[in-house]
Design a protein that fits this description.
Rossmann fold; FMN binding; 670 residues; alpha/beta; five-stranded parallel β-sheet; 22 helices; FAD/NAD(P)-binding domain; TIM Barrel; single chain; eight-stranded parallel barrel; globular; 3 domains; FMN
Length: 670
């Protein structure tokens, strides 16, 4: 295989008083370990592994500079010498591997999830239940001092720098924008007054920490909300930040309340690096670009194209701690790529759980999910080559077991072979590629096109059933009509469907199918930005413009039996994107539906006591799945013990997060 090189990505960056080993910044992520008892030790192991993996500089999740700025009651903060001392376990772990790490200081402002929230003005955020108190002049000055003290404590804790969170709609951003700052004193009104708060914070921090300490400022370059900053204002603030003593400017894209997707898998790779490029040449300090950069090839291209001096990647370091080292060794094919699903990272954090990664369950569990060599040999049979099966097989082989993986089809990958064909889910092919590489590298014996028999399993010490799922067939009269297609057949064969299509079932798969059959022909980045109302000229405040609606020429109904919101999808942070996409394309979302029958006229339904005939040319069934357990009964009857994982264990919502984790946990326990 041809060895790739990444001269721009791997070039060192001289900051004057110190040097970064490459142009990669690991972006800030809250993991949930920050507040847990013993969590800092686990956090140290998490960041230490990324430092070992070669990242240039790490930025932690957000720590508040005072109690009122905390994200929620008892959230992580850096306010005392005790805090600083406790963080040594984190900084020492990073420095042990010659890494650098910066503590992010984040005051949540009106995004604080508690009744003592403060902001520039007393305006409640649309995503919060608490109306903040307007800060007095004394409270503003006190908060500036708190930022400076926290920065000094970070230095005492051994951090190489701090990042000031001035984007995503948090407190500093709230002062900057007229959307959330309606003051008429020295901290509001004109733009010069509104940026006074961030500049005073930077000056106070620089004075407290000295000249040889990294200050990163996360600058919101594209707010994506009404009454946000204009590009001219962003340039003005960036220049003033440089004068005030900032070392590096990091790019922030979109407030949390913005209704434009910025990091989900539907977002094209490197979709917002042009925003950072617009600031190049306006300041003389390094600029970091961000969002949906998930391979070294994309990162190298961004830097080689002159869009930025550095790239920030956050979730890709959940997926693979050794991303940079593998790139440097010419092993990009061995990188476990982030697929931007959000299911185990952001969705977990918003539920108050520990963050992890769908494709790498060991992320944030470095001290718990430990793969160690087995003291004894075993022969292990894994039946089913989907995500659960490959996860179990490769982990068992890594432990030194003799593993045979049986797959009835002609390829590995299971349901991900279908998922990767859905527009916006092309990234799933990266996970298949990674696990196939792992299968080869760990020495798993693979037998494709094989329906394994009970006799063939007699010589194995352990049998793992990972036989997946099959589409559930609902009891609807006419379900065998020629216009009916199950979702697996539709995705696999992609038959031509008519101009009127009814999709039965509005779970994650139903949403995917409705998206697939209404996908516009032009899927370029420019068209995607126009569809979501993003103005590339950033001529308007916040960078918004009227969105271009691309109604599908195909009439589509997305139906569910359950009453209430239709098309939620599996993820809290992505469900709204799916719904908005379908609505923009003219898909009719119907909940509380009873299915009567399917015939030549179409799909007969009852809705709110009324009888309707949807004149569908085709009806695609996405009514859930059933577990395929294959040999389970035979094994049980023969008295042979076995394990069931993945969809075979629980069909659910095709939960790859659970399937991959189950595979690793089971293999570790053998």
């Amino acid at each position: 295989m041809e060895q790739k090189s990444y001269p721009h990505l791997l070039a060192p960056l001289d900051l004057g008083f110190t040097q970064l080993k490459n142009r990669v910044l690991m972006g800030s992520m809250h993991t949930g370990l920050e507040e847990k008892k013993g969590g800092l030790k686990k956090l140290g192991a998490f960041y230490g592994e990324r430092a070992k993996g070669g990242v240039g500089i790490i930025v932690t999740g957000g720590f508040s500079p005072n109690m009122r700025g905390s994200l929620y009651p008892f959230a992580a903060s850096m306010t005392s010498g005790r805090h600083a001392r406790s963080h040594r376990v984190v900084t020492d772990a990073v420095h042990e591997h010659d890494g650098k790490i910066a503590l992010q200081l984040l005051h949540a402002g009106r995004y604080s999830y508690h009744p003592l929230a403060q902001s520039a003005s007393s305006i409640r955020a649309p995503i919060s239940k608490f109306t903040p108190f307007q800060m007095s002049d004394r409270q503003i000055r006190s908060t500036i001092k708190d930022f400076a003290k926290s920065a000094e404590l970070a230095r005492e804790a051994g951090y190489d720098g701090i990042e000031l969170m001035g984007s995503e709609g948090y407190l500093i951003n709230q002062f900057i924008c007229a959307r959330s700052n309606t003051r008429y004193d020295d901290w509001g009104g004109s733009y010069e007054n509104r940026i006074r708060f961030p500049l005073e914070v930077v000056r106070a921090v620089r004075q407290r920490v000295g000249r040889d300490f990294i200050i990163i400022f996360r600058l919101s370059m594209l707010d994506l909300v009404e009454q946000g900053s204009t590009h001219e204002e962003v340039i003005m603030l960036a220049k003033e930040l440089e004068k005030a003593g900032v070392t590096i400017i990091n790019t922030g894209i979109g407030w949390h309340e913005a209704r434009v997707p910025t990091i989900a898998t539907q977002v094209p790779r490197a979709a917002f690096t042009w925003v950072t490029e617009k600031l190049r040449g306006q300041v003389n300090i390094p600029l970091v670009t961000t969002n949906r950069i998930n391979t070294p090839e994309v990162a190298e291209d961004v830097l080689a194209s002159g869009h930025a001096d550095m790239v920030s990647m956050a979730r890709p370091f959940l997926a693979d701690a050794h991303f940079v080292a593998k790139a440097a060794e010419g092993r990009s094919e061995d990188i476990n790529t982030c697929i931007a699903c959000n299911q185990a990272c952001l969705d977990h954090v918003f539920q108050g759980k520990r963050a992890s990664c769908l494709v790498n369950p060991q992320a944030c569990y470095e001290t718990e999910l430990v793969v160690t060599p087995s003291a004894y040999k075993k022969k292990v049979a894994v039946i089913g080559g989907g995500m659960a099966g490959m996860s179990a097989a490769t982990t068992a082989a890594e432990r030194g077991f003799d593993v045979v993986l049986f797959e009835k089809s002609d390829t590995l990958g299971g349901q991900f072979n279908l998922a990767m064909q859905i527009p916006g889910k092309e990234e799933f092919k990266e996970t298949i590629r990674y696990f196939k590489r792992r299968v080869d590298q760990t020495g798993v014996t693979v037998k494709l096109n094989t329906n394994v028999s009970l006799d063939e399993l007699k010589g194995f010490d352990e049998v793992i059933l990972a036989t997946g799922v099959k589409p559930r067939v609902p009891a609807i009269e006419g379900i065998d009509h020629e216009k009916v297609i199950d979702y697996q057949t539709f995705i696999r064969d992609q038959p031509e469907v008519g101009s009127r299509v009814a999709v039965v079932g509005a779970g994650g798969i139903g949403v995917d199918i409705a998206s697939m059959i209404t996908e516009p022909e032009d899927t370029s980045l420019d068209n995607w930005l126009k569809e979501w109302g993003v103005d590339k000229s950033i001529g308007q405040a916040g960078g918004l413009q009227p969105a271009e609606t691309h109604s599908s020429q195909r009439q589509v109904w997305l139906l569910q039996r359950r009453e209430g919101q239709v098309g939620k999808g599996p993820g809290k942070t992505t469900g709204w994107i799916h719904r908005k996409t379908l609505q923009k394309r003219g898909v009719e979302l119907l909940g509380g539906v009873s299915y009567e029958k399917i015939d030549d006229q179409g799909l007969h339904i009852s809705l709110e006591g009324q009888y309707h005939i949807l004149p569908a040319d085709h009806v695609i069934i996405c009514a859930g799945q059933e577990s395929v357990r294959g040999l389970a009964q035979q094994l049980e009857d023969a008295g042979k013990s076995f394990h069931i994982i993945g969809g075979a264990d629980k069909a659910g919502e095709l939960d790859a997060k659970r399937a991959i984790r189950q595979g690793i946990e089971l293999a570790i326990s053998l």
